[in-house]
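Friendly challenge for the regulars: who can give me the structure tokens for this chain first? No prize, just bragging rights.
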Amino acid sequence: MSWTTTDIPDQTGRTAVVTGANTGLGYETAAALAAKGAHVVLAVRNLEKGKAAADLIARRTPGAEVTLQQLDLTSLDSVREAADQLHAGLDRVDLLVNNAGVMFTPEEKTKDGFELQFGTNHLGHFAFTGRMLDLLLATPESRVVTVSSIGHRFGRIRFDDLQAERGYNRFTAYGKSKLANLLFTYELQDRLAGTTTSALAAHPGGSASELDRHLPGPLKLVFAAMSQDTEAGALPTLRAATDPGVRGGQYLGPAGFMEMRGAPKVVSSSRRSHDADVRRRLWTVSEELTGVTFDLPPAA
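First reply, four minutes later:
Bragging rights claimed.
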């Protein structure tokens, strides 16, 4: 069965925080939620670009309730400051969409010295989710949706070299960060047992966005030929965020060939993403690296 934005239930009275919402998949996610009545917080690194995105949403949906929050996931100080500011302005968070990310970047470090892709895509979102957890837990039926990728399938978690200091490969570093997104989601869902908050993951398949700017030319052409637009690429995230029929711990992606395009459905993830020992160890290491702990019991 197909699923489109017309299937999104009314979101009036709900608050959604979407990271990386000024462009691409994040923008389409935020715009669709705002069009259904949600108060959407665009959590963005660049406030000027965020303002342009908010203005565009307002033109598409007159009366849309959209606010801006500066958030730089490459800085744990920025993550803490953003969470503090959101706590001062919000009394509930129904939906946290961990969408922002980088892909196939040249070797670089975050402001805290982490490998850029792992530090941004996983550690930044891990810390942000942990700091927003109390608002999520205080909101009945809230959800955390983290955007992963088909690329998680070539990822490996090597705890003896998490920061790729022994040799950097942009493709394996990306795969590691996206595998970490899934390990985090599944562990978080288990730890949320006994609450009404749930954790899900989604991937856009092949979706043409600014993320592919670091792809080599020939690969970019192949990727473009198999990709769908960002509006379609956002549908798995939107379904994970709003469909009453999905449940915590599920992973959604396109239904088409190789999960590159098509209507969103529940899909499977790699065997490595379900390794309970690895996900628990990654959780512990992530707490140590970020200094952020979750007020939740360990997974059973």
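The radius of gyration is 18 Å. The longest helix spans residues 116-137. Your move, everyone else.
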